[in-house]
Design goal:
The chain is of the alpha/beta class and 153 residues long. The protein is 38% helix and 16% strand. The protein contains five helices and four strands, in the order H-E-H-E-H-E-H-E-H. It has helices spanning 6-22, 41-54, 82-91, 120-127, 138-146, and strands at residues 30-37, 58-65, 99-103, 131-134. The protein has a four-stranded parallel sheet with strand order 2-1-3-4, with helices on both faces. The chain is globular. The protein starts with 5 loop residues before the first helix and ends in a 7-residue tail after the last helix.
Length: 153
């Protein structure tokens, strides 16, 4: 769910969405909030529209996070911090019952900690919503949204 290689992410997302449409196994219902850097928000809005055409029962909100930690000119998803997410989240009225999807690129490699030192657990506790980390690929984003398990070729 990162901003780098946007074309690759978008292509993976659309391909996986088409495969899910054609095959069984999708739960295809849920309320989600995708957290992203400001630079990827437009891409996510486009992907949300495509998802809604195929799976209208999935309610997906996009939360573009302004970067206060490094400054507003920094818009990449991988440099969003836990405090940035918390600040943006509290400023918005988020629908109860949503699952918050965080791209793993926001976390230190191999750890559940943001660049500002906030842990994933602290973020979840502060938000009061379930938080799920999603791998940095379009395929994995679709699989998370559709509740798909296991591997698909």
């Amino acid at each position: 769910m990162a901003t780098r290689e946007r074309g690759g992410f978008k292509e993976e997302f659309i391909k996986e969405l088409r495969q899910a449409e054609a095959g069984p196994g999708a739960e295809s219902a849920g309320d989600f909030l995708v957290v992203t850097g400001a630079g990827s928000a437009r891409l996510w809005e486009e992907l949300r529209a495509r998802l809604a055409m195929t799976f209208p029962e999935i309610d997906l909100e996009i939360m573009a996070v302004a970067n206060s930690f490094f400054g507003p000119m920094v818009t990449v998803t991988g440099l969003v911090t836990g405090e940035d997410i918390t600040r943006t989240f509290k400023a918005q009225k988020v629908k109860p019952g949503r699952t918050v999807l965080i791209p793993e690129v926001m976390l230190a490699y191999g750890k559940e900690v943001f660049l500002d030192g906030m842990s994933l657990g602290e973020l979840q506790k502060g938000l009061g919503f379930p938080v799920r980390v999603v791998a940095n690929s379009g395929k994995e984003a679709v699989r998370a949204l559709l509740g798909l398990k296991g591997e698909r070729q």
